[in-house]
Design brief:
This protein is an alpha/beta fold. Helix content is 33%, strand content 29%. It folds into two domains: 80 residues, Alpha-Beta Plaits; 194 residues, Formyl transferase, N-terminal domain (Rossmann fold). Helix 3 runs parallel beside helix 8.
Length: 286
């Protein structure tokens, strides 16, 4: 099926009168056809958020000129903004350890084109999934992470990410803590799936923590990685109800289904420029 090509404007700025009018007038004056638009005003912080899709073929110029023409208006409104082209597939680098469910799910969605992305490579601190990944025609890199080589290992991860021109890094149950300098290098570009309904039960073995506390709901959280462990802005979450008869093993099994679905949704929102970060939280235009 033919897919309509569009440019996506995602932006936030100080709230004020006339933002929508000025932005949509700019698009209309350039013969732009708006396919979708979403807006949100944060009254507490006085911040305004927007996401607008413009049909690419309706404009008499290409993306670079769209950005150039829009910049004076964005400067006048003191905007944080970006404009991306739907025809350009984002390049995703997946990091994984020994648990396969999120990796398998992402590759299945990629292969079926449910996720319209390029998986540039898979990086792992174990060699477990080399055959599976390479069978899909995707480069696999084994980068061991030991107590005495962490600086060199993460320098290699960063080198590989830059070498393949990665746009987004996805931690698909990558059971290592990224160093602060790597997190700082790619703000808003590293996604993690945490097997807990954050902010509860951060860190290791959250299902064991939840079992000990006798919770009735367990969940998973897709969030951006920051220097603070499991404290990054939350993109997507989901939960499932459990009861006293469920063991830790049951909870882990239930959780795997939630984890892969939440990660896929969160990644999709991110890749479609539906997520705008504001401090420690996000605005997500679903």
């Amino acid at each position: 099926m033919h897919r309509t090509r569009f440019y996506t404007l995602s932006a936030s700025c100080p709230d004020q009168v006339g933002i929508i009018a000025r932005v949509t007038s700019f698009i209309a004056e350039n013969h732009g056809w708006i396919l979708e638009s979403r807006f949100h005003a944060d009254d507490l912080d006085g911040r305004y958020f927007m996401r607008v899709e413009v049909k690419a073929e309706s404009l008499p110029f290409h993306l670079a000129e769209f950005r150039s023409r829009f910049r004076p208006l964005a400067d006048a409104l003191k905007m944080d903004w970006r404009i991306n082209d739907s025809a350009v597939r984002k390049r995703v680098v997946v990091l994984v350890s020994k648990q396969e469910h999120c990796l398998y799910d992402l590759l299945a969605r990629w292969q079926s084109k449910e996720l319209d992305i390029e998986i540039a490579c898979v990086i792992s601190n174990h060699d477990t999934f080399r055959g599976f990944v390479e069978w899909h025609g995707i480069p696999f890199h084994h980068v061991p992470v030991m107590a005495d080589n962490k600086a060199a290992a993460y320098a290699e991860v960063r080198r590989l990410f830059e070498e393949v021109h990665g746009d987004t890094m996805v931690l698909a149950r990558y059971m290592q803590i990224l160093p602060p300098e790597l997190c700082a290098a790619y703000p808003g570009r590293i996604l993690n799936i945490h097997h807990s309904f954050l902010p509860s039960f951060v860190g290791a073995k959250p299902y064991h923590q939840a079992y000990t506390r006798g919770v009735k709901l367990i969940g998973a959280t897709c969030h951006y990685v920051t220097e603070s462990l499991d404290q990054g802005p939350i993109i997507e979450q989901d939960v499932i109800r459990i009861d006293h008869s469920d063991s830790v093993e049951d909870m882990v099994r239930y959780g795997k289904d939630i984890e892969k679905n939440v990660l896929a949704r969160g990644l999709r929102y991110h890749l479609e420029d539906r997520v705008l970060v504001h401090g420690s939280k996000t605005v997500v235009f679903r």
